[in-house]
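Researcher: We plan to redesign the surface later, but first we want a full-length starting point. Tokens attached.
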């Protein structure tokens, strides 16, 4: 009988992280290890399979055709592994996460996917709201971690830069000299306050045409053509354009998206490493 080479689970996990995050540094961050260790795992996997799975370059990671073909089998292997251990699964762990409305963009779905894939015994609760309110809840012990805009709190771990602009639907029309109709969040939204101060300083009149309880509502009003919204570029959806330069609106600048956490146990720290790596990977695209 011919013995086939065995595949170890950590090696396959490393391959999936590299493939899904499209970055060695992000995979290293998520695994809490070193780039040399991840590279060695991939080399062992490629040697066992006798095929090249990943093309490496200084700036990017790309799967070969054989790497893409191996993805379904790799995922199936990890799912079978999890099912085999289901009878010995450790107790479900709770992780409560707060995310600022102005930081909650396209990263959310990939973050949840990756957390589910690597932490199947993790019970996750997510609250979306104002950075200040979330950080107050964090201080009271109601949240284990918060993704908030810089300015609400010092410290934390940087995840991304938020560059802001004045976004409107392509059909939106406004004549200089008329009040600028705005779609904003209600106070105490920090982005709203920055936008209003900038308009006042520039001597541009404004009116609140729409006040939403969340960015989703503000975006809907903006897509409907009701008003202009101050939004981070990375969360502005297709269908909206930054009209600021064309209309001479004041620059809104940028802020950093920061992760604050007081998690101490290894399992939840690992989950937050995965969360941070995924957020950075998607935000950089």
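Model: Full-length starting sequence:
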């Amino acid at each position: 009988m011919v013995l086939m080479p065995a595949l170890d689970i950590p090696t396959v996990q490393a391959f999936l992280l590299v493939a899904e995050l499209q970055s060695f540094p992000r995979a290293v961050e998520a695994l809490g290890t070193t780039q040399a260790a991840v590279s060695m795992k991939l080399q062992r996997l490629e040697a066992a399979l006798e095929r090249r799975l990943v093309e490496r370059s200084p700036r990017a990671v790309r799967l070969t055709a054989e790497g893409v073909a191996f993805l379904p089998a790799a995922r199936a292997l990890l799912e079978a592994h999890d099912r085999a251990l289901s009878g010995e699964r450790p107790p479900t762990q709770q992780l409560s996460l707060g995310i600022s409305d102005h930081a909650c963009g396209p990263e959310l779905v990939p973050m949840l996917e990756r957390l589910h894939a690597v932490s199947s015994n993790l019970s996750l609760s997510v609250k979306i709201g104002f950075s200040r309110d979330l950080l107050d809840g964090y201080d009271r012990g109601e949240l284990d971690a918060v993704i908030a805009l810089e300015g609400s709190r010092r410290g934390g771990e940087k995840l991304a830069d938020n560059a802001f602009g004045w976004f409107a639907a392509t059909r939106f029309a406004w004549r200089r000299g008329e009040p600028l109709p705005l779609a904003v969040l209600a106070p105490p939204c920090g982005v709203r306050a920055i936008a209003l101060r900038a308009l006042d300083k520039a001597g541009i009149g404004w009116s609140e045409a729409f006040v939403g309880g969340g960015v989703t509502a503000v975006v809907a009003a903006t897509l409907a053509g009701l008003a202009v919204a101050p939004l981070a570029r990375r969360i502005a959806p297709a269908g909206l354009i930054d009209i600021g330069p064309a209309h001479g609106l004041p620059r809104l600048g940028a802020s950093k998206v920061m992760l604050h956490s007081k998690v101490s146990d290894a399992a939840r720290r690992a989950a937050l490493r995965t969360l941070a790596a995924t957020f950075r990977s998607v935000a950089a695209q």
